[in-house]
Design goal:
Elements (H helix, E strand, L loop, with lengths): L2 H8 L9 E4 L4 E5 L13 E4 L1 H5 L7 E2 L8 E2 L4 E4 L5 E4 L5 E3 L3 E6 L5 H17 L11 H6 L1 E4 L2 H39 L5 E4 H4 E5 L15 E4 L12 E2 L4 E3 L1 H7 L9 E4 L11 E3 L4 E2 L3 E6 L4 H9 L17 H5 L2 E4 L2 H41 L7
Parallel strand pairs: 3-8, 13-18, 14-17
Antiparallel strand pairs: 1-10, 2-9, 3-4, 5-8, 6-7, 6-9, 11-20, 12-19, 13-15, 16-17, 16-19
Length: about 400
């Protein structure tokens, strides 16, 4: 039992009046799905719900038109607990279907609210995973659910707790929906860039392309300094979603002389030039003077607005320009020959203003979403433990 769960159960003196302890196995009936084989898959009948559909609602779905044990049938509002490798709890909302193995159909026991149970299981996954079988691929078996316990409020309080947490979920869904709409609008605006009136020019006619610098391990590890020295992985750091502002490693002037490295100016567009991440089409623009390693290429604007160049690069699918070989890569010559529209400066600036407003709105909504998610985690910890009570 993990320290968090053990502490929760051991401190019974602090348990709110009317609450009780119970093993997870007593909270619901957990029925594993049917062990389908590939030859069972078809194009007609009930959709087969596998882990792929849990992790990606748009994943390809197979169907089964044979006889099914009623215990493996699911419908709207049923709880599904993915107990192997991908550990997750979700509510099904896509109509009649049949459950595959490695997924539990979870039917709440008498006196257990379905919504509360979903929040309780979701919050307990880290603790249950600590006790799960397997190292790289975790498995939460029924034995774990029988041996691990939690505290359970009365049914009325379960419902009040669930109502509070549902309201936060609704706010999260609303924020996520706004972000999706903004990103869709951003995509449409980027498509419009290619139709802007103006002369088409080669990329290397309007910017200077160059690869990054070698960065030996012995020079890495400085967490602060004059210049960020970014790797592809730093594109995923918080705050670097559009503009590159920080990195895991930093260097100073003395390091530059030793490395014989040159910095890139503010406004440089960066993108991966080798490896699988090349195909993710990541693009970032430098917010500060900085360096990048030799897995990254930089484009320094010379006869084009730097931000317009960045957005033009966002329209390019690097998969169209990858060199043949075991490791995906692009070279400077190939990228330099790509043609992009270059309208007059006023049109560039107008387009950039619209796009930057969109990016600012996406960033604001993303920050709000992160705050809501943190609020939910805090509320779950307080409400499910009884530290904070929801008045009747």
């Amino acid at each position: 039992m993990s320290s968090n769960m053990a502490e929760l159960i051991r401190d019974t003196d602090a348990m709110p009046e009317g609450w009780r302890t119970a093993p997870f196995s007593a909270l619901a009936d957990y029925v594993n799905g049917r062990a389908f084989k590939p030859e069972d898959w078809g194009t007609e009948g009930l959709p087969i719900i596998r882990i792929a559909q849990i992790t990606n609602p748009d994943a390809e779905t197979n169907f089964f038109d044979g006889a099914v044990d009623p215990r493996n049938l699911i419908d709207d509002d049923d709880l599904i607990f993915s107990w192997s490798a991908t550990l997750a709890v979700m509510r099904w909302r896509k109509g009649p279907a049949v459950l595959n193995q490695h997924l539990f159909k979870v039917t709440p026991a008498e006196g257990i609210d379905r919504d509360w149970l979903q929040f309780r299981l979701d919050a307990s996954i880290p603790d249950l995973a600590d006790e799960a079988h397997g190292t790289t691929m975790k498995h939460i078996r029924k034995g774990t659910l029988s041996s691990q316990s939690t505290i359970v409020p009365p049914l009325d309080e379960q419902r009040r707790i669930a109502e509070v947490l549902r309201s936060v979920d609704e706010a999260i869904a609303a924020a996520d929906g706004v972000i999706s709409q903004l990103q869709e609008t951003r995509g449409l605006r980027l498509e419009a860039l290619m139709a802007l009136p103006g002369t088409y020019r080669r990329i290397d006619e309007v910017c200077r392309l160059s690869g990054g610098n070698g960065f030996p391990i012995k020079h890495q590890g400085k967490a602060a300094g004059q210049y960020p020295f970014a790797k592809v992985s730093d594109m995923n750091r918080p705050g670097n979603e559009v503009q590159m502002r920080n990195a895991e490693n930093y260097v100073d002037e003395a390091d530059l002389r030793t490395l014989k490295a040159k910095t890139f100016p503010v406004g440089t567009t960066f993108f991966p030039k080798v490896g699988a991440t090349l195909l993710t089409n990541k693009r970032r623009i430098a917010a500060v003077e900085m360096l990048v390693d030799n897995n990254v290429m930089g484009a320094v604007a010379t006869d084009i607005d730097p931000w317009f160049l960045y957005y033009a690069f966002c329209t390019i699918d690097m998969a169209d320009y990858v060199q043949p070989g075991a490791v995906p890569s692009v070279n400077q010559r190939t990228i330099g020959q790509i043609m992009i529209p270059v309208p007059d400066r006023a049109a560039q600036e107008e387009f950039v203003e619209t796009m930057r407003d969109l990016d600012a709105a996406i960033e604001m909504q993303s920050d709000a979403l992160a705050q809501l998610t943190a609020t939910k985690q805090s509320l779950m910890a307080d409400l499910l433990s009884g530290r904070v009570r929801v008045p009747a």
